[in-house]
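Example 3.
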Amino acid sequence: MTATTSPAPPGTEPGGLPEPRRRPSRLRPAGRARTVERGASRVFRWTATSAGALILVVLAAVAVFLVVKAMPALTSTSAELVDSVSFMRNSSSLLDYVGPLVFGTVLAAVLALALAVPVAIAIALFISHYAPRRLASGLGYVVDLLAAVPSVVYGLWGAMVLAPIVQPVWSWLNSTLGWIPFFSGTVSPTGRVILTVGVVLAVMILPIITAVSREVFLQTPRLYEEAALALGATRWEMIRMTVLPFGRSGVVSAAMLGLGRALGETMAVLMILSQGFLYSVLLLVAGQQQTIAANIAAQFPEASDQGMSVLIATGLALFVITLVVNMSARAIVARRKDFSGAN
Amino acid sequence: MAQRIDVKDLNIYYGEFRAVADVAMSVEPRSVTAFIGPSGCGKSTFLRTLNRMHEVIPGARVDGHVEIDGVDLYAPDVDPVAVRRQIGMVFQRPNPFPTMSIADNVLAGVRLNNKRISKGDAQDLVEASLRGANLWNEVKDRLDRPGSGLSGGQQQRLCIARAIAVKPQVLLMDEPCSALDPISTLAIEDLIAELKAEYTIVIVTHNMQQAARVSDRTAFFNLAGQGQPGKLVEVDDTSVIFSAPREQATEDYISGRFG
Amino acid sequence: MATTTDAPTPSSSSASSSELASLLRQVDPRRRRTDRAMRWIITGAFALAMLPLLSVAWTVVSHGIERFDMYFLTHSMRGVYGGIDAGGIYHAIIGTVEITLFATLISVPIGLLTAIYLVEYGRGHLARAVTFFVDVMTGIPSIVAGLFAYALFAVILGPGIRMGVVGSVALSVLMIPVVVRSSEEMLRLVPNELREAALALGVPRWLVVIKVVLRTAVAGIVTGVMIAIARIIGETAPLLITVGVADSINFNLFEGRMMTLPVYVYRQFQQGLIPCSADDMSCIATITYDRAWAAALTLILLVMLLNLVARLVTRLFAPKTIS
């Protein structure tokens, strides 16, 4: 911050901090232009810094405005809300309304994660350790194409193409593994159930998990890979001895980034899922669950003022959940970065 | 255990580039053979072909024969994974697995083939291997601590313990002391002298004094020029190479006139 | 020094050639099998991931191509009802282009300046906080961004407001972090020698940044911006709740609802099959789905085009210094 101060201060503070002082003195332009340009340089620096600070302001504003608009819902009594908000007819309070939505959101995201993570790790390994070197970057690009498809197209595809395809599979699951609670109940004849949503969400978060995992797998020091091979390890044993232990924290944070995406995904859920408001683990039955994001999109256009406030309150819950998930994911990545930088 | 290695008409390639040309030599059992030569002459590349580690580099390939007691390592029915088990390797930079404890590092190779090794056997093997690598007394109180906490020299001896724990026939060492301080180097050199009673050892070194101290036979590699393949100039008893080499190039290198 | 007598003696201390030969030929068959199985599983996983990609591409193209023509691209949905064979996406294209461009107009200056701050000036707590929260911002659910934009305008202009610019603000919340990330990466690629050389000539720092650093990195930054646009152009949920839906053309970002391509896809899908009477030959029961697929095809083509142009920009205008 001391870079643009006038030449006087360096003399007045003899024992000043060495780090910020050395830079400006090296970079300070010599000659007559100095006094003229310092103004412009300062303006530019302040503009850039303000833009950086603005990011923090925006993020804070997101939280503040959501809280402000959620306030009416948060401060009203349950009876008032139930009376004034049409879609809360079957709930006794705001918490009672949000609860099943949070449950459905987490269920859909966890299903997606459970399906996506093993496949993503395998794809990342394929690109980093199995595919020919020359193909690797091209294959990574192909996987990234999955991320380029808009979510509304996934929704359309999931509802019109995938659901009819997987419906017989779900029936089969139900008849053979029906004793497991998840697969019990009456199978939906349309296939528009939360497990189908999980599959589509898994496809959507596959690229991000793959990309991050691939990067950490590629960072495995060759030194250790060769040590494993020289001990007589097969390629898979080498991966298990070195690549996977090395990549563990990276894969964890990749999975959490994926989880964050899946939690907030709207359109695919909205277009595919036959919605319900239950705490239900039945994965193959229609009319059981709904997610926060899809519920907002479904109700918002028709909602009254008070109704919007309720929906914004649920959105606030979603915001907090994803914020926690993403911040922990980023914290893990950051710690890892420090670690590898020290080596 | 200690086996004789015969190399015949060996050419080593990285893609189209021929890195090492026409090597023919023998390595005697229960002895130490040192490879010396200027940087880039292909001595490390050649060493890596002796346990088929060369081919893990994309595009790398080998022409010719490497026979260990008459069995060609490059025969089509030979499995490179089995080869590496029989011919151990120690690398330039110590590389104990940082995610494993000292004991697990020693057992890393053994566990590949024998997942259910009994606890007693495992302990015995860890102790025997660490004693074999002259490391037991220094680490016996912290076997369950990570191997990365050791000093560089200790780590390198841990790698040697890891290599001999799988009971190989031959031990290859690729400049094992170049990343170590003089005292650690001395410890490794002593260890090499002891190990040769049991193993056939091949060591690549940049340090001619080291070659003179530890090896029984020495092979000198050289390259004709930039972009030319490396070649084996001569191989003989170490005393002969360092006192009366047959080739002028060897004498120039030994006496420090180049390289 | 311990003696080597304790050292493990090789198991085959007198391994004959034939024993050795067999040792070299076989690895424990179970290990071989595991290795081979894992190779198949891992390769199979990649193939598995290609299935949805191919399926999406195939169905969008095969279903969408039917109605994808000049008429479809140049007509709106005004006056279109029931199953009549009419209607297009002109109004949605207008909306998408305007809203996206305005979002870009908001995001690029903020994003680029933030990147400049991080690379050229950023030190200490503020820089670390900005870096961290830019990453966090990439994880904001798009629907939350929509709610934020709605709440912002509702507080200022009163509730129930629906107009294009609200959607632009929502999209820019999603776009800014992407622009910051990619621009930052590009600015960091500019070698320090270049900066120092210019500074040594007595050029003030802000001119160095604009004339040297930005000029060197411009191709990469443009590419990053285009990829960011491609990323947000398909966003549906925030536009659904901030801009709403419309059937007619609306050029005005600051007044009234607008249609956008992704919302159009959703809207058509949501309307479902049209109940046609058996004798009405001009009624097409699946018209809404047909329109949805054709609009989805348009959207995907748009995204692909942006990606393609972005790659071309990198290839054609890459600075010669970074080769």
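The longest helix of chain C spans residues 29-64. The interface with chain B takes residues 1-4, 6-13, 15, 17, 20-21, 23-28, 31 of chain C (CB under 8 Å).
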